[in-house]
Design brief:
- By secondary structure, the chain is α/β, with parallel strands linked by helices.
- The protein has 2 domains: 204 residues, 3-Layer(bba) Sandwich (FAD/NAD(P)-binding domain), CATH 3.50.50; 180 residues, D-Amino Acid Oxidase, Chain A, domain 2 (2-Layer Sandwich), CATH 3.30.9.10.
- Helices cover 29% and strands 25% of the residues.
- A hairpin with a 2-residue loop joins strand 9 and strand 10.
- The chain starts with a strand and ends in a 17-residue tail after the last helix.
C-alpha cells in the first residue's frame, strides 16, 4: 500500500479516471467535486475519433491513437467492477464530404454566436475547412494531392466516392460526393461512462467529496500547502488539477470554455429492429452519433460565449439544418432532448498535462473535444508521473510551458 495521499480537484471524467488508476495502484485518493452533473462528459457525444477528427500527424495524434487502443481493456475493467454497460461500440466512423457550395460559401457561416465557419461547423475544426476548399476535385486528384493522404495511408482507412458512399450508407444527403471510412474509430455512451467511473471510484475506495467547491489553492513557496474549500481545508502530498473549463479560476493556465449545444432524436419504434444508422456520421458541418438503443445524438455548436448557459433558438436551428442536410431522414424522427456543456479549450486545442509551476501539483486539463477519448491515456501517464516520477517522452509536448514561448 502506497502511503502517499493524493487530492484530485475535479470530479469529471479526467479526474475520476486518474483517481481510479491511482487507487488500483494502492494509493489513497480523495476527489473534490463541485457538481458532478456539470462535467463536460455529460454533455458530449462520446466519439472516439482521432482519425475522423483528422488530427495532424504528431504528438496529439500519437496520444489519441494510444488512448483509443487502451479503450477495449479499460472499458472491460470498468464494466467488470461496476456491472454498468458503457455502450462502448467500435462501430467505425464515416466522414462524408459535400460538393462546393452551401456551407463552404458561407451559408452556414456566422449564425449569431460570433463563431467563424471553422468553429461554427461542429467539432471537426480544420478537416471541415480543408474539405470545403477542395471538395470540387475529383476523387483521384483528391487522393493524390490531399495533405491528409500521408496520414490516411499509414492508418486503416478507405476513401469512398459518391456511388460507394451512398451504397455504404443509404439515406445520405444528395450533396454528399464522397467521404472517408475509419473502421477503427468508435464511440461510447458518455453518460453511462461517467456513471461507471463514479461507481468504480466508489467501489475501489476513492473518497469522493461531492458538492465541495474549491475556493483557493493555498501556496507556500513553490508548493501547494492546502486547498481551501466550501467544506474546509484539505491537505495532501500531491495534488491534481482536473477542473476542465473552470481551471483558470484556480490557477493561471490558458484554459477557457467553449460552449457546445447538442440535441437528440429517437428512431421510430417501427425501425428499431433494423437501425438505419450503424456507424457515426462525421460531416463537415455536424456529427450524428447513433446509439444501439435507437437514440441519435446530434452535435455540436462551438461558441465563445464564456459560461453563458442554456440552449438558444439559433443554436438548435443550426444543429437541425446541418444534420438534416447530412442525413435527411432525421427530419421525421421525434426530438428527445436538448442540452449544452462547456469544453475546456486551449489556444492550440491540445491538453495541458504533467508538472506545473508548483512542485506538488500536476495538471490534467484542457482536453477540449477529446476528454472522453483521452481519459485512459491521461490516467496512465499521469499516474506513472505521480507515483514513480516517470515522465513519458510524449508528455513533454503537453507541458504548460509551451505557452510561454
Amino acid at each position: 500500500m502506497n502511503s502517499m495521499k493524493i487530492l484530485i480537484i475535479g470530479g469529471g471524467i479526467i479526474g475520476l479516471a486518474i483517481a481510479i488508476e491511482l487507487r488500483r495502484r494502492g494509493t489513497s485518493v480523495t476527489v473534490l467535486s463541485r457538481d458532478f452533473k456539470e462535467a463536460a462528459a455529460h454533455a458530449a457525444a462520446g466519439m472516439l475519433a482521432p482519425q475522423a477528427e483528422a488530427i495532424p500527424s504528431g504528438p496529439m495524434l500519437d496520444l489519441c491513437l494510444h488512448s483509443r487502443s487502451l479503450y477495449p481493456e479499460w472499458i472491460a475493467q470498468l464494466e467488470a467492477i461496476t456491472g454498468i454497460q458503457t455502450g462502448y461500440w467500435p462501430c467505425g466512423i464515416l466522414a462524408p464530404v459535400y460538393e462546393r457550395g452551401g456551407w463552404g460559401d458561407g451559408e452556414m457561416g456566422r449564425w449569431g454566436d460570433g463563431e467563424s465557419r471553422r468553429e461554427g461547423a461542429g467539432e471537426q475544426g480544420s478537416r471541415g475547412a480543408f474539405f470545403t476548399q477542395h471538395s470540387t476535385l475529383n476523387t483521384q486528384h483528391f487522393l493524390q494531392h490531399s495533405t491528409l493522404n500521408t496520414q490516411h495511408s499509414l492508418l486503416n482507412t478507405t476513401w469512398l466516392d459518391r456511388e460507394q458512399i451512398h451504397q455504404f450508407q443509404p439515406g445520405l444527403g444528395s450533396e454528399v460526393v464522397g467521404g472517408w471510412w475509419y473502421p477503427e474509430d468508435a464511440q461510447v455512451d458518455n453518460r453511462a461512462l461517467a456513471q461507471a467511473l463514479w461507481m468504480a471510484a466508489r467501489e475501489l475506495g476513492v473518497d469522493i467529496c461531492e458538492g465541495v467547491a474549491v475556493e483557493e489553492i493555498d501556496r507556500q513557496h513553490d508548493k501547494v500547502k492546502s486547498v481551501k474549500t466550501s467544506a474546509g481545508e484539505y491537505k495532501a502530498d500531491r495534488y491534481v488539477l482536473a477542473t476542465g473549463a473552470w481551471s483558470n479560476q484556480l490557477l493561471s493556465v490558458p484554459v477557457y470554455p467553449k460552449k457546445g449545444q447538442m440535441l437528440s432524436v429517437k428512431v421510430p419504434s417501427s425501425d428499431l429492429k433494423q437501425l438505419p444508422l450503424q456507424q457515426v456520421l462525421f460531416g463537415t458541418e455536424s456529427y450524428i452519433v447513433p446509439r444501439s438503443d435507437g437514440r441519435i445524438i446530434v452535435g455540436a455548436t462551438s461558441e465563445d460565449v464564456g459560461f453563458t448557459p442554456e440552449n438558444t433558438p439559433a443554436g438548435i436551428q443550426a444543429l437541425l439544418s446541418r444534420a438534416i442536410r447530412l442525413y435527411p431522414q432525421l427530419q421525421d424522427f421525434p426530438i428527445q432532448e436538448f442540452w449544452w456543456g462547456f469544453r475546456p479549450a486551449t489556444p492550440d486545442e491540445m491538453p495541458i498535462l504533467g508538472e506545473s509551476e508548483l512542485d506538488n501539483l500536476i495538471l490534467a486539463t484542457g482536453h477540449y473535444r477529446n476528454g472522453i477519448l483521452l481519459a485512459p491515456v491521461t490516467a496512465l501517464l499521469l499516474s506513472d508521473l505521480i507515483l514513480h516520477q516517470k515522465t513519458a517522452p510524449l508528455l513533454a509536448h503537453f507541458h504548460y510551458s509551451r505557452f510561454d514561448k
